[in-house]
Amino acid sequence: xxxxxxxxxxxxxxxxxxxxxxxxxxxxxxxxxxxxxxxxxxxxxxxxxxxxxxxxxxxxxxxxxxxxxxxxxxxxxxxxxxxxxxxxxxxxxxxxxxxxxxxxxxxxxxxxxxxxxxxxxxxxxxxxxxxxxxxxxxxxxxxxxxxxxxxxxxxxxxxxxxxxxxxxxxxxxxxxxxxxxxxxxxxxxxxxxxxxxxxxxxxxxxxxxxxxxxxxxxxxxxxxxxxxxxxxxxxxxxxxxxxxxxxxxxxxxxxxxxxxxxxxxxxxxxxxxxxxxxxxxxxxxxxxxxxxxxxxxxxxxxxxxxxxxxxxxxxxxxxxxxxxxxxxxxxxxxxxxxxxxxxxxxxxxxxxxxxxxxxxxxxxxxxxxxxxxxxxxxxxxxxxxxxxxxxxxxxxxxxxxxxxxxxxxxxxxxxxxxxxxxxxxxxxxxxxxxxxxxxxxxxxxxxxxxxxxxxxxxxxxxxxxxxxxxxxxxxxxxxxxxxxxxxxxxxxxxxxxxxxxxxxxxxxxxxxxxxxxxxxxxxxxxxxxxxxxxxxxxxxxxxxxxxxxxxxxxxxxxxxxxxxxxxxxxxxxxxxxxxxxxxxxxxxxxxxxxxxxxxxxxxxxxxxxxxxxxxxxxxxxxxxxxxxxxxxxxxxxxxxxxxxxxxxxxxxxxxxxxxxxxxxxxxxxxxx
Length: 672
Prior knowledge:
Layout: H1 10-18, H2 30-66, E1 70-76, E2 84-89, E3 93-98, E4 101-106, E5 111-117, H3 121-145, H4 156-169, E6 172-176, E7 179-184, E8 187-191, E9 198-203, E10 211-214, E11 217-222, E12 227-234, E13 240-246, H5 253-258, H6 290-297, H7 302-325, E14 345-350, E15 353-363, E16 366-370, H8 390-404, E17 409-413, E18 416-423, E19 430-435, E20 438-442, E21 447-451, E22 454-458, E23 464-469, E24 493-496, E25 499-503, E26 507-512, E27 518-523, E28 529-532, E29 538-543, H9 548-551, E30 564-569, E31 576-580, E32 586-590, E33 593-600, E34 610-612, E35 618-621, E36 623-629, E37 636-642, E38 648-652, E39 655-659, E40 663-668
Antiparallel strand pairs: 1-40, 2-3, 3-4, 4-5, 6-7, 7-8, 8-9, 10-11, 11-12, 12-13, 14-15, 15-18, 16-17, 18-19, 20-21, 21-22, 22-23, 24-25, 25-26, 26-27, 28-29, 29-30, 30-31, 32-33, 33-36, 34-35, 36-37, 38-39, 39-40
């Protein structure tokens, strides 16, 4: 039966077929079984091929499309703005400030929930009318008294735009849960989640100073005389409390900066890579800055680089003529603006309260050293000059400009100071004389005092624990230790897992927090900040510059400008796990998400305009370049590029929010 089934032989099978007799099929007949196996194998093969093709297709789609950012929502504006912020709140809820416009949008439904202007239009028009009236009066008066010096006519539209931008620049957006807060210089306003109407307003005192951020809490310092007043506002619970902080009057940031400290605060253009500064001032007699010219020269086209020496030579000649025509003996020298022999005082915010930091100059000593190499014995202009010598000629001209402008030296502060540390009420005081300008870094469990090439570590009762020598100077200090904007990382002093990380101008050092013993050192010039990933590995924003760039910090070489670098370091032993050269610094690290950003924003002109470069040559266009890096090796996973510069960039794992002058954009990608 396994051979012929229910038939006895092939002859019987032939007779049955000839007589059209249907014979049942024996299910275990060999031919039937083999046919079933062949069909089964075919089905399995086809299913496997389809599965592989599906997986391959999904992988290709994910690698080329799904894992790269795409726009999931955007809002366009007819009017441009120079400031803006955004925040994600709830599920698919976008809250943003665009200039002075506050709005909430639903990303999933792709619609606006509400929007409102934070500028009082009636008051604004009244101010504009008063300004136009004053300008008209001034012009009429000048026509009769001084017709050769008529003031410029005020354009109402331009004035309105400038005033609206100015109003928006003073606003700060904070979103905690469904509480939408806008912080202005004179008040904090809570806006209703559903309607966008103001539901609570907290007025700040006229003498309000710094606004500090403590997680979900905002601290506003105010007061004068022998009392400093702190107002604590919880943005989640909407509660507020008051506290008197004993102390002397706190000088302004500007006053303290003049007194030898470093004022906190940020200026300049936004963007991960930073905007390129203008090389010449508004006045025609303002000279080119050689260092800025060198920076711009890296971005010139080949024809622009070839023409650079001639442009620079012409500029040098113009500067010499202007120097002979203009005499300004009353100009103050850098040394004349040194710290006055006073005792300025600041209340410094720390994670657990405030402390008093006092510095007093006892004896001034400013040391000047040459920070440029000697001019070459043979000029690059001697002999034949061709295209191959373009960089050499440009370097010689730029360095000559640097020396002629007195920029070949740097000043180092070796003055003698009296430094005092105490609690806000003046108790637990520590004082000592130090050599060099002191900088204070309040950390979680300790405070670090940096003085030139030395650090001293104190506990929270201002008891000195230990001190250590460094290779180079440490800069900065007095910044809010819990500032919201981390920028390009923490530092130069960071406390983490019983270690103290300190980077100076050329070395990163890990100290044992308890003993002060140096566990390891990594030489690296130009470190700007530290990040830690979810495994506590250390990510360092730095450069590939050599130690010579510190010794000869004023020397210019347009052919060897330092490039940015990112190092991943094992904090246990200081071993460099990998290094890479991203286009811009890393600005966000969270788990498997590492983003680096390079951007250039043209504030004051349209997004797609190009800025004028050296002596009228075409310069850099506005742009933003975002790259995601792979945590295991630092290699690029994808790049997102746009020909416009953002005024704000925020990351939240696989979601990216960008605020442009005329648009708010949300990008998103899949992450496995």
